[in-house]
Design a protein that fits this description.
Low-confidence stretches: none
Strand order of the largest sheet: 3-2-1-4-5
Mean pLDDT: 90
Number of strands: 5
Shape: globular
Strand content: 25-35%
Largest sheet: 5 strands, mixed
Order of helices and strands: HHEEEEHHEH
Radius of gyration: 13 Å
Length: 115
Amino acid sequence: MATMAECRSALDRLSDNLTTAEGDVRSAAALDRSLSCHIKDLAITFTGRLKNGRIEVLDTIEGPPVEKAEIRLTMTGDDLVAMVNGQLNFARAWGSGRVRLEAGFRDLLRLRTLL
């Protein structure tokens, strides 16, 4: 089971990957939205913003998110680490229910280019 530190490191690597992306991925990551990433098996939530093509983690709280972020992710720590390391395809994980992504309709349309 991935640790909280490994999950935080994975989010930092994902943020770094987004900043170097090009084309449609860069455009999709250019949103300015509140973001939460709930790690089910650790019962923690990273909260922050997707802004200027980066994920800025502002806080880590115990349990599910208290406030409803504009973009919400839910998954296990192992799945987060595997996705960032390229071992788990996000679209397949989302389609199978391993990863949950919630956002407004327009944001989902933009974020689908990340899939």
